[in-house]
Amino acid sequence: MTSKVYVALRVPADPLRAFDAFTLEIAAWWQPGRLFQVTPQGDGRLAFEPGVGGRLFTTLESGEQFEIGRISVWEPGRRLVFSWRQASFAPDQSTEVEVTFEPVGAETRISIEHRAWDTLPQKHAARHGFPEPVTLRRVGEWWQASLAQLADRLSRRGDLTA
After folding, report:
1. Spatial distance between the Cα atoms of 156 and 149, rounded to a whole number of angstroms
2. What is the rounded distance in angstroms from the CA atom of residue 16 to the CA atom of residue 47?
3. What is the distance between the alpha carbons of residues 57 and 42, in angstroms, rounded to a whole number?
4. Tens digit of pLDDT for each residue in 121-132?
């Protein structure tokens, strides 16, 4: 069984709007993690290329782009799955992120499962030498901070739909 992190949060939007905000507006709500920077130069400006096979990539201040991963599932308003890798990962190393969007009344529960952390050795730079439970807790905190910013963004924009 793979080691994984699971976090969920309700946001004030319908599932399609929540999906669009997650994918099309990621640069506006993404919270860079001090421990889990995408590249040594920071996280840059993240963006998704819509659709299966599209990229999740970042553009750094220098204009250089780094591919974080590829989309394997693109179901607007329902589900998104993509690979995730940081610059410190070897070419054959990656983790996987699955995001689901579930209607709960007039809100949407966004659930994130970030899995396959056990494929990276404890001494890997991305794990900072932490034992697995600490790595997973820190990854969870990182995702919670980003989801909270997404929820705040949707709240401020008055995106609650019935």
Report:
1. 10
2. 18
3. 13
4. 677 666 666 777
How many domains, the chain?
A: 1
In a domain, 162, yes or no: no
The CATH number of the domain where 111 resides is what?
A: 3.30.530.20
Element housing 43 (H / E):
none
Length of the chain: 162
The answer to whether the beta carbons of residues 143 and 150 sit under 8 Å apart is no
Residue 111 domain boundaries? 4-156
Q: Look at strands 55-59 and 45-48 and give their pairing.
A: antiparallel
**Are residues 110 and 100 in contact, defined by beta-carbon separation less than 8 angstroms?**
yes
pTM equals 0.89
pLDDT at position 118: 80
